[in-house]
Amino acid sequence: MKVVLTTLNAKYIHKNLALRWLYVSRIPEADVELMEFVIKDDLERISDQIAQRQPEVIGISVYIWNADLTRKWIAILKRKLPHVRILIGGPEVSYQCEDWLDTGIEAVLRGEGEKTFWQAVRREADIDGLVSRGYVSPVAYARVDLNWLETLESPYWLAMDEEAMAHRYLYLETSRGCPYHCAYCLSSADNRVRMFSEAYVLRQLAPLAERAVKQVKFLDRTYNVMPERALRIARFIETLPPSINFQFEVVADTISEAMLDFFEQEADPARYRFEIGVQSLNSKTLEAVDRRQDNQRLLEVTSRLLKRGYVCHLDLIAGLPYEDRASFEQSYNGLFAVHPSELQVGILKLLKGTAMIARAPGWGMEFEAQTPYTVTKTAWLSEADLAEVECVHLATEKLLNSGRCRACLQSVFAEHLQLSAYALMAQAGARLQALPHPYQLKELYELLIEVLTPLVGESEAQARVNTDYLMQSAHRQKPLAIRHLSAEERKEIRRNLVQRMDFDEQQVYNYTQIDVGWQAGGIQIQIVLAVPGQPVRRIWLSEEEQQEWIKS
Ligand code: SF4
Fold first, then answer.
1. Which of 24, 103, 107, 361 has the fewest Cβ atoms nearer than 10 Å?
2. Prediction pTM value
3. Tell me, what's the ipTM?
């Protein structure tokens, strides 16, 4: 019996672990093929590819990012293969799925499918989690025994993945479920945490020593749910090649001191990325969504990790109860102040199956009827407030998370404590939305000068922005329209670099950019050398040097 397991991933690098678990748990009579696609693929073309295999059964994994496309895809598949049996599963259909039965599928498998999918293929009776036209299982969410999964072939090291190993994430789970109950989150519906044995996890990690994998992402909702075990696994990771990068989702305020010590004193910061969901710093908001969070400890731990050089990605959600514009601004500015590597601003999505759905009307929440079910209004945030959040999101991505203006922005708000980063990002985002696309890099920086000028004055804004711009424009971007030094002055500085500092003349004339910047609380001249193949280097001229060099 030919069975095709398939899905639409968001990106090629996102390898689907759920399908691989189905693959390794397959039944002997099934001839199984795993075919992954991405949301950008042409549905007709990929349906033809599947149809060529003449499958009897197709299993599709459905997520929030592919749900709408999957509905269309199912219709195409049924047109090309009228007799094919389609079984679907995945988080998007595990909580509310009745309307999917109208799409032409045979059944939905709610919950974990490693056993139930194959029972459905065999048309067994009374399958946990199954919903079809003739049967709705009383078990709302199927679970499998992780001990049994450990006896199967490893889904992480399949021969079919060998070739692309270096170009895709290795997704790895050491546990399933989450011990927390955040009302807006699907994982809270599965709050019985089950752990793969530590020995199994280490066995899955060990082959990394000789594989080409570059990125490992742990899928655990909370990597540090068992602190001592998490620390032991992290210690093992440190024995693996330093070229591999590891990503964890952690609950930062519960990271133990022992684990923090390890990350501060022993581990290599270049190898780890922490994803830290904060969502809000408003205690009343957190309480209303059943989220226990010690904000003070969270900020302390995050600051310590950041200071040590770890990449920390922080998440905020707008649209939660009791969070009005002022409160969200405070949450944003509070996180901005710890200088996160990335700050992601999202708007609440009301997901089927979460406790939030029932509470939403009482909080005046309105949301889109289709995926991704984004909130459009709450009792505390108007549509205009949420449109402003979109602007903040855009500016944060382009100016801060991209790294392009990070140093400038962080220093401005560290030195001008009365200013609001949120307000600036809202303005910058609105202007970014209005820029014709695609825009040049220099337009981004000029836009930042415009919004900073009313706050700190023109010359300070120009010098601060130029500090980031010259470092980013290593490949000799066009200068900003604010040059403060004449061609003659720059020529003098170049001449001095060669004569006084023994720089290579060719390199100085071909690869230096010279202009004002912001250093040690004031405007100074910066010289940036961007010689191809070498790290970009910056030299600041002291006031005396400036006078001496330019005069001489
Ligand atoms: S938001 Fe995070 S901590 Fe809360 S239930 Fe979801 S996965 Fe667990």
1. 361
2. 0.92
3. 0.99
